[in-house]
Amino acid sequence: MNSKLVTFLKIILPLALGVFLIWYSINSATPEERQKTWQYISEADPKWIIISLILGIFSHLSRAYRWKFLLQPLGYTTKLSNNFMAVMVGYLANLGIPRSGEVLRGGTISTYEGVPFKKAFGTIISERVIDLLMLLLIIAITLFFQSKDLLNYLEEKIANPFVTLSIILALIAAGVIFLGIIKTSSNPILIKLRNFGEGLLEGIKSISKMKNKGAFIFHTFLIWLLYVAMFYVIKFTVAETTDLSIGPILATFVAGSLAMSTTNGGIGAFPIAIAAILLLYGIEKPAGEAFGWILWGSQTAINIIIGALSFLFLPILNRGK
Q: How many CB atoms lie within 10 A of CB 310?
């Protein structure tokens, strides 16, 4: 297939999916449900939205500061302001073209701090490896604390609980077998998967070269704690979600995080995923979707604003570079 066509499809398909999901969400709801959703959104307490935005901005600052620890072993001491603005223009780019933000972020820090692009991009990949591990850790914690609710739900959908257990064991066995095949296969696609896995391990090993491992680990946990806190405070904007405990919030966090990768910045997919999870906890669809739209809309808006301002101020604050 033509490379230009592939690139075009990578840009258009996620966006088209997002638009379709918005259309589907609106048209599958009754007039009463649409009215309720809008009412929840319009009546949301702005105080909690502002707190969520502040938490989000601090998480971006922490990410920018953490990046310094990966660049220092390479011989580069970068300005926090440039790191932060590079991170934000990356988030802005991802809203238009999925996964383009990492490339733009690397190019930005290369332009204004003189870090070779390949080295800068390598540190970003290492970051993504660590973030993937953190997401997996949160998924594991969520499954551990919410296993009872999930099993009860599955039991309602599947009459025999032994069938549920058999499915879980079969999936685990299939995963082990698949890993074994990848290790020995000569198939080009599986070789790429194996190389990708090895690259992830290399990214993890790069942390051992840092002088400030403790600070790096601290900021890694701080970033993800702030992410979860962003979700937690939004529950106070919708009356029906105010009493949710941390367990359901973690479940919505996992669903929202996974939904973000399906479309441009999670457009359309994010609120639907949030509403689907909250249904398991007795939260009606309009309230769940309002929760998702309030969180997604506010965080996306601030990323657009700060990302656009970063584009503007980067050349101004770095004249001559």
A: 22
**Chain mean pLDDT for the chain:** 82
Please give the Cα distance from 248 to 278 (Å, whole number).
7
Q: How far apart are CA 82 and CA 72, in angstroms?
A: 15
Residues 266, 132: Cα–Cα separation, whole Å: 17
Which tokens is 292 given? 């998702």
CA geometry: angle at 198 spanning 197 and 202, to 5°? 120
CA distance 206 to 128: 12
Q: Specify the length of the chain in residues.
A: 321
Choice between 80 and 153, residue whose per-residue pLDDT is larger: 80
Indicate the SS3 state at residue 99. coil
Q: Which of 206, 295, 286 is nearest to 249 (CA)?
A: 295
Q: Span 214-242, mean pLDDT?
A: 93
CA distance 154 to 236: 29
pLDDT tens digits, residue range 153-178?
545 544 455 555 566 567 677 777 77
Mean pLDDT of 70-95: 90
Task: Tell me how crowded residue 93 is: count the other CB atoms within 10 A of its CB.
Answer: 20
